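SEQUENCE-TO-STRUCTURE ENTRY
===========================
Question of interest: how does this chain fold, as expressed in backbone structure tokens?
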Amino acid sequence: MFASSETTEKPEWTRLRYEALSEFRIPPVYGSSPPPTLDPAPYKQRIERLKHKYPYKDVESNLLKCLEHFWILNCSENVSGKPVLVQIEEGRLAGFTNAEFEEFLVRVGVKRDDKGILKLDLT
């Protein structure tokens, strides 16, 4: 669905993923380049735009549906019973080799810090 082969991501999915990530991207932290603006106005405008584009009731409904599907999937006898996010937190993912898992982390914007702990890569 997201890739045209085992290793090639479909361009349309890449575009959608980048659009979503850029729309919800957290402003840069201090010490980053370029430095963040101290003016809260652009962020307030952005929040207002997002609130209108993604009404809370719709987001809440979709989130609850997603959680319901996760629970249904987790109860499937075809699944190990461990949620995907728990597997990721533990540093592996069922059905992935170590190399595939590390490539997956890079593609979804997660990296290991100097202690090996998984962190979001907001750069």
In short: Residues 56-74 form the longest helix (19 residues). DSSP finds five helices and two strands in the chain.
